[in-house]
Design a protein that fits this description.
The complex is a heterodimer. Chain A has 9 helices and 11 strands. Chain A has helices at residues 12-18, 66-74, 115-124, 135-147, 163-174, 193-210, 244-247, 250-257, 285-292, and strands at residues 28-37, 40-50, 55-59, 81-86, 98-101, 181-185, 213-217, 230-235, 238-242, 262-266, 269-273. The two termini of chain A are 37 Å apart. Chain A: Residues 28-261 form the ABC transporter domain. Chain A: GO terms for molecular function: ATP binding; ATP hydrolysis activity.
Chain lengths: 294, 312
């Protein structure tokens, strides 16, 4: 697709300078991470290194702190304990090197923004002043939309696009600054199988062509099973990390949940049976979700 | 002062064939009158610019109710100033900023915000009624705060308007891009380091100033016609980030200047002219898009969905 060759028009010098000397050094480095809301601990003793080109899937039931982990990585949520470096710096300081694909979809009434405008905001929306019409920016936006196959609806208001189309545009927006880390918060939610495949393929292609590290929050591992290097499974204030084969087993998940959980493999898919508080809400869920969505 | 008295005299001279329409539309001695309202026409341009541009964010941030709430406290500030015999513009700006600040700080979430406004608004209106009841001066002054008085814009008042407008326009130009980002896509904006909270508060203060400006001219009751209707009309016909503010300003200018020119010879306050013009423009935009939608049921809406390219 040639996306890697597209020259980033804003400040190539800055980009070159910020690449660290060691290409294999972790882009995310979390030590003894603890996150708690009041006396409710979401996770503790979390030690996490994510290297360039790595695909980390974050799984777990609602309210287990998956979205909060992304917020911590973005510097929007303080760790309760432990230390974190993102691209060798404190979180939140290198936001232009992080592409973020949020969970929320646009309402059908949201018609004041076209697909191309959303992508452009990813490019220079954080800069002060008026948005001047520059040809380099327009070309860059066209290239980005083209690369995700969204050129056909570049001028359609975002609220009128289907969920899958919106997610394509979201990916184009997240890739606008040529990020080194891609944080995805349930990007497959409420998409049909065909679109789930397209979106995961776009993310995978980015990882292949640019060595971008991917942290992919999902409640459903199957759509990304073939891409995942490691799984971080959060539940009951604890966690397990490792390859899908290590983590997605009956014994590991039973131990993590503290109750019998069965993991069955059917035709290359993983089915987890008997997770407590999967599906309908747990009394604690509301509070934790409220905290997460702020 | 060329207000009601003059207009009424013209009407009385006009003869029997006129009736109520002559009272509403009266263009006798129009040229002479025009020379007397240059200040008002200038004020109209300022208000058109400010109302049209601020309105864009009022629409995208879903703040029409906040506009109404702020205008009631602006009214309270203006009537307090009237009672105390100090500068009315300063009074209305003070009231606006207090209300805007309170809404901005207390109402971070949309649901909280609406209740905060609902609580502030009657309080402001009540204070305003109290101050006006205590005021023993001319009744026209009281009425003017509520329904506008552009025909009587004086030179020092124009200076205040000009200064405040310049502040609002510069502030808007500075924050335009990040404010757009924070308004339409707050999640990603925050992730990209845009100070979403601070911008929200800053915009409330800008909105407060804009409301105080508009209250001077169209009155506290009718501020929405300048700060909401033109932008809402523009949003019906375009989604382009360039065309939207341009059209919004054009609509606001048409309503404002048209209102002044129509109101000039009549005995009626300016506000019904401005609000009616703004409403007609909105109606026109709605009808235009409705017709477009029925004639071609899809090119903008549905067609790309079928032709999604699987690129991968």
């Amino acid at each position: 697709m040639g996306r890697a060759e597209v020259v980033f028009p804003l400040s190539p010098a800055d980009r070159g300078a910020s690449r660290s000397a060691d290409p294999g050094a972790p882009v995310i480095s979390l030590r003894d991470g603890v996150l708690a809301y009041g006396d409710r601990v979401l996770w503790r003793d979390l030690r996490l290194d994510v290297r360039p080109g790595e695909f980390l899937a974050v799984l777990g039931p609602n309210g287990s702190g998956k979205t909060s982990l992304l917020r911590v990585l973005l510097g929007r949520q303080q760790l309760t304990g432990g230390s974190l470096a993102v691209l060798g710096r404190p979180p939140g300081s290198g936001s232009r090197h992080i592409g973020y694909i949020p969970q929320q979809a646009f309402q059908p009434t949201h018609t004041l923004l076209r697909a191309r405008d959303l992508v452009r905001l990813g490019l220079d929306g954080h800069c002060w002043g008026l948005p001047l019409a520059r040809r380099t920016i327009r070309h860059r936006v066209d290239d980005l939309l083209d690369a995700v196959g969204a050129a056909a609806y570049a001028d359609t208001p975002i609220g009128r696009l289907s969920g899958g189309e919106q997610q394509r545009v979201r990916i184009a927006q997240a890739l606008a600054t040529d990020p080194r880390i891609l944080l995805c918060d349930e990007p497959l939610l409420s998409l049909d199988l065909q679109h789930q495949r397209t979106i995961t393929e776009l993310v995978a292609e980015r990882r292949r062509s640019a060595g971008t590290a991917v942290v992919f929050v999902t409640h459903e591992i199957n759509p990304v099973l073939g891409l995942v290097d490691r799984v971080l499974y959060l539940a009951q204030g604890g966690h397990r990390m490792g390859s899908p084969d290590e983590v997605m087993t009956s014994s590991t998940l039973s131990e993590l949940y503290g109750t019998q959980v069965d993991v069955v493999r059917v035709g290359g898919r993983i089915v987890v049976v008997g997770e407590p508080n999967a599906g309908t809400g747990h009394p604690h869920d509301d509070g934790a979700e409220g905290g997460e969505s702020q | 002062m060329i207000g009601p008295g003059y207009g009424f005299a013209l009407f009385a001279d006009g003869g029997e064939d006129t009736g109520i329409w002559h009272q509403i539309f009266n263009f006798d001695n129009y040229g002479e009158l025009l020379g007397l309202v240059q200040n008002s026409l200038l004020a109209g341009v300022l208000l058109g610019l400010v109302g049209g541009l601020v309105g864009v964010f009022v629409i995208t941030r879903d703040l029409p109710f906040a506009v109404h709430g702020i205008s009631e406290l602006s009214f309270a500030g203006a009537s307090a100033a009237l009672l105390l015999g100090v500068n009315i513009v300063a009074g209305s700006i003070a009231g606006s900023l207090i209300a805007a600040g309170a809404i901005g700080v207390l109402g971070v979430r949309a649901r909280d915000r609406n209740s905060v406004i609902g609580i502030i608004m009657p309080f402001g209106l009540g204070l305003g009624v109290l101050f006006l009841s205590l005021y023993k001066g001319r009744a026209a002054n009281k009425f003017g705060i509520l329904t506008g008085q552009i025909i009587a814009v004086s030179t020092p008042q124009t200076a205040w308007l000009l200064g405040t407008s310049v502040v609002v326009l510069i502030a808007l130009a500075l924050v335009w891009r990040p404010l757009t980002f924070a308004s339409v896509d707050p999640e990603v904006a925050e992730a990209r380091g845009v100070p979403v909270r601070a911008l929200s508060l800053a915009f409330m203060l800008v909105l407060g100033l804009a409301v105080a400006l508009c209250v001077q001219i169209v009155g506290a009751l009718l501020v929405l016609a300048l700060l909401v209707t033109p932008a809402a009309a523009a949003a019906r016909v375009t989604a382009s980030p360039l065309l939207l503010p341009v059209l919004s300003v054009v609509f606001a200018l048409c309503a404002m200047e048209g209102g002044i020119l129509l109101a000039l010879g009549s005995t009626i306050p300016i506000s019904p002219y401005v609000t009616t013009l703004a409403f007609l423009i909105y109606l026109g935009c709605r009808l235009a898009t409705a017709r477009r939608a029925t004639r071609a049921p899809g090119p903008a809406l549905g067609s790309p969905r079928g032709t999604v390219r699987t690129h991968t």
